[in-house]
Amino acid sequence: MTETVSSLRALPWSVRPDARMWRCEPAPAEVRGFHAALPDYSPTPLVELPLLAAEFGVGRVFVKDESCRLGLPAFKALGASWAVHRALAESAASGKEPSPLTLVTATDGNHGRAVARTARLLGQHAHVFVPQGVHPQAVAAIVAEQAKVTEVAGPYDEAVRLAALAAAAPDAVLVQDTAWPGYEQIPGWIVEGYSTLCAEIDEQLAGEGVAAGPDLVSIPVGVGSLAQAVVTHYRSRPSGRASALLSVEPETAACVLESLTVGEPVSVTTGDTIMAGLNCGTPSSIAWPYLHSGLDAAVAVSDADSTSAAAGLAALGVSSGPCGAATLAGLRTVLTGAGAEERRTALGLDATSVIVLVSTEGPAANPHFTADH
User: Fold this and answer.
1) Cα separation, 44 vs 120, whole angstroms
2) Active-site residue 215, yes or no?
3) Which of 85, 121, 141, 298 has the greatest count of CB atoms below 10 A from its CB?
4) pTM of the full structure
């Protein structure tokens, strides 16, 4: 069935009624074991917030808190570590003379720092391109990982283009968390790396007596790589309850919502947003088929709503930056106001439902946010 845009035009919202019927292949099982063997690995917390369950009229609400993942203030190290591991293994298997590689990437902050950290730990080099608008403190954090940083006088998509050009140099490898035709293998490995986060959620929910899994997962979206991983996880289950999946973007960079609305991947012109890690104008080419078929709904939120959600989470003891808190802002947008019952029904929610919000970063991951609040 084709996705439909709600008749409530004032709300940036798209819904696909048959998404829970779609199925795909699972992520490789060995990813979890790879992460578990890393020195700094431990599962990030899954925090229950009963006050939010009461607010939304559901059974239970949990937040997956990624404010400290492998020593960094965001989830991105899961993808970077696995992808670099795979890329180095491929290089070694090719028979080339062993020598340090330069790992090249573009970033709004967190992915670049994760690639730089991984390179440093493994004795490789890193070259990170950062677009206009990335806070100087975020740039400094990447430099502190001994990476070369090139600041780009343009948006994220331009930084990605320049990084790809730089990676054509000898002994350089592009480790980018978005894909396009002709560059899809490494972004696919990054998506696989994120599967550990989903596996942890399953185990932690089972420990809380929710063996069937969540009824709804709310996911922040930039180019859609994390959302692809979440869709892959919950749409690869052969049987049992299918979770509803909601993507959340900034209103100023809602490339996935716009693409779902028109039915094909499109680029949008991005504006300024405090949700820096989600400020992306083009969906990843490998994510798009999963988002198009497997997402139940998509919504866009304002900076004000994300900021308010972050403050609310902080008051409840969860440290979240605006990208992570966007998942709460999106849920609140969907389940309140005119048409809320229509949207609740579309997501299959009732008074017994279990909801998981994926909070992808802590405040330290977003210096714009911490400087202003």
Assistant:
1) 23
2) no
3) 298
4) 0.93
